[in-house]
Amino acid sequence: xxxxxxxxxxxxxxxxxxxxxxxxxxxxxxxxxxxxxxxxxxxxxxxxxxxxxxxxxxxxxxxxxxxxxxxxxxxxxxxxxxxxxxxxxxxxxxxxxxxxxxxxxxxxxxxxxxxxxxxxxxxxxxxxxxxxx
Length: 133
Description:
Elements: E1 14-22, H1 26-36, H2 41-52, E2 58-59, E3 81-82, H3 85-105, E4 109-117, E5 123-131
């Protein structure tokens, strides 16, 4: 049995997805997960697809050292943005997995995510999808 760092508030109206030892930079993945936190699942999927195509950027708030200015970051209220393609692709796969778990339970869900750093490059990622009340 997989142990998650947190349990959802209402387990009957939420589902989970998890990735361990992902070979992506945890700083990029953390910022990308924070960008989709609270979005509806369709909007988050479209946003991640736009990030991989460089139509929208991910605003870097915490780990922004060395990140250049990007005019697309203005729509999120900042100046420093990037397009972490690999992190966005991994989160897309996790979102798809969590979406299929939600369909199995019959939920209409929004996304939440947690990133934990592990040995600088690989990271552990947990995603909870919860139904709005």
